[in-house]
């Protein structure tokens, strides 16, 4: 049985619809996005980055993007994992604490320094650190950095992940997950906007 295309599912695209036809025009891009999702969230071998950790990071990151329908999908995915249901409430609190606007950060000294902008430097609350554990605490703080302050990412941030028990491979996968989710949200939002515009045009 074929796995449903995740972007089609999240965007509410029905087989045979106008949006289905639009996506079919870029079949390779559609297939590559699905393969990326499967490799990141349903891998044959998750290695030392568990499925519950992957879903937890996804729920947190999508929550920061303020996309409730997509967040609900990853919330349910997290709750369905063996270890995940106990984390949902704590992550919801941390999403609320981490919500902000960006991008923030500083460029190296030079012409672009005029674009420097200070903003929230997110840290997991002390109350929820024991519940989330050192690995997720470090992952959430790093993910927040990548979403809102990517220009501030430095070697010290990698060291914090390593100190929390992340392997080099795990850190690469974490970064890939954050990047994929940002892409996924943009695509889903764009497709939903197209769908709404089509409905509005048909009704006028």
List keywords for this structure.
204 residues; mainly alpha; 9 helices
Radius of gyration: 18 Å
Helix and strand element order:
HHHHHHHHH
Seen as an oligomer or otherwise, the chain set is single chain
Low-confidence stretches: none
Helix content bin:
55-70%
The secondary structure category is mainly alpha
Number of helices: 9
Approximate strand percentage: under 5%
> Quick one: biggest sheet?
none
Tell me how many strands there are. 0
Q: Measure the end-to-end span.
A: 40 Å
Mean pLDDT: 87
Which term fits the overall shape?
A: globular
Structure notes:
With 204 residues, the chain is an all-alpha fold. Helix content is 64%, strand content 0%. Helix 4 (51-64) packs antiparallel against helix 5 and helix 4 (51-64) packs parallel to helix 6 (88-98). 26% of the residues are buried. The model has no long low-confidence stretch (mean pLDDT 87).
Give a brief outline of the structure.
This protein has helices at residues 6-11, 18-24, 27-41, 51-64, 68-79, 88-98, 129-148, 155-163, 168-203. It is mainly alpha-helical and 204 residues long.
